[in-house]
Amino acid sequence: MGDEVDGHTVDRAKPSLLIRRLAVLTGALVLATARTAHADDPDVGTGKCQIIKFCVGVNVDNKTDGSGGQEGGSQGGSDSNLKCRLTKIDPKPPVNHPAWKGADPERNDLYFRSCSNGDQNNPDGFVVVPQGQPAPQVDLQELAQRAVDSMTLLGPDITSPRTAGKYTIGVPMWMWVNQSATTYGPNRASASAGGVTVTATAKVSKMVWTMGDGATVTCNGPGTPYQGSEGMAQSPTCGHVYEKSSSGAQKGKFAVTATSTWTIDWQGGGAVGQLTEIRQTNVQVAIGELQVVS
């Protein structure tokens, strides 16, 4: 025997059923509770659906889709603990429920995807699967990495210092880069598999300059272009002052390397996460002593 909740029967004799309260309120899907309620919980079947349009029994024979556990990006990602669970919704919600996204319930099955990366829960979502086909086993982080790989993320487009430039000991050097989608961001791309789409947005979060003289400069932005009116002032955002000549360096120039850290935020399949990519650009810079003409 079972209790009836909004027209759906909850069989208390089957502990393998759980109830997730789903709501349609002002045209949006609302989860009435963040936790999973089992059929033998005392508040199930007692008329506590409140404004919920319907309650559904969800088979607890869940599948873990293996999301996470794989570092993304050339320097690894931060979502190695991300795990997602797929739960088939049975009985199916009404045909006009937004979870279907216009799909025909007679020809498709509906799965509920819940994701977590340890202590922090991630947004839930729905996946529509053609009837008779297995639930998609999608590694969301791998899908996010595919989106990143489709981008053209390059090293910094260095404007200053220039290889052909002439720079002087003790004179402030202003460093800055051109900003474009491929060299600074933002850069966006998506990748899809198994009915799931992940969208990634990449942007440079910092740049570390190794100046060739043993100094390292960290800049949190693209730098500030130098204007003649600045005179001998130091850059307010990204600069360096050489204290020795590059005459003793290979080919008489310092090897300067600008290393950009791309931070990529991604979302999709009911989850969110972040990846990191590293890119570099090199330039040779000659530093000489101030020549005094008598």
Task: Please summarize what this structure is.
With 294 residues, the chain is mainly beta.
Textual characterization of the structure:
It is a single chain. With 294 residues, the protein is mainly beta. It folds into 2 domains: 2-137, no CATH class; 148-288, no CATH class. The chain is 3% helix and 44% strand. The protein is built from 1 helix and 21 strands. It has one helix spanning 140-149, and strands at 2-5, 8-11, 17-25, 28-31, 37-38, 54-59, 63-64, 83-88, 108-117, 120-121, 125-130, 157-160, 166-168, 173-174, 176-178, 187-193, 196-210, 216-219, 239-240, 254-268, 271-288. The strands form 6 sheets. Strands 13, 16, 17, 18, 20 and 21 form a 6-stranded mixed beta sheet that branches. Strands 7, 8, 9, 10 and 11 form a 5-stranded antiparallel beta sheet that branches. Strands 3, 4, 5 and 6 form a 4-stranded antiparallel beta sheet that branches. The protein starts with a strand and ends in a 6-residue tail after the last strand. Residues 1-80 have low confidence and may be disordered.
Which key features would you list for this structure?
5-stranded antiparallel sheet, 2 domains, 3% helix, 294 residues
How would you characterize the largest beta sheet?
A: 6 strands, mixed
Contiguous low-pLDDT stretches (5 residues minimum) are: 1-80
Number of domains: 2
Briefly note the structural class of the backbone. mainly beta
For the terminal residues, how far apart are their CA atoms?
A: 106 Å
Let me know the average pLDDT. 74
Portion in beta strands: 35-45%
Give the overall shape: rod-shaped
Number of helices: 1
Radius of gyration: 28 Å
Helix content: under 10%
How many DSSP-defined strands? 21
Oligomer: single chain
N-to-C SSE string, H for helix and E for strand: EEEEEEEEEEEHEEEEEEEEEE
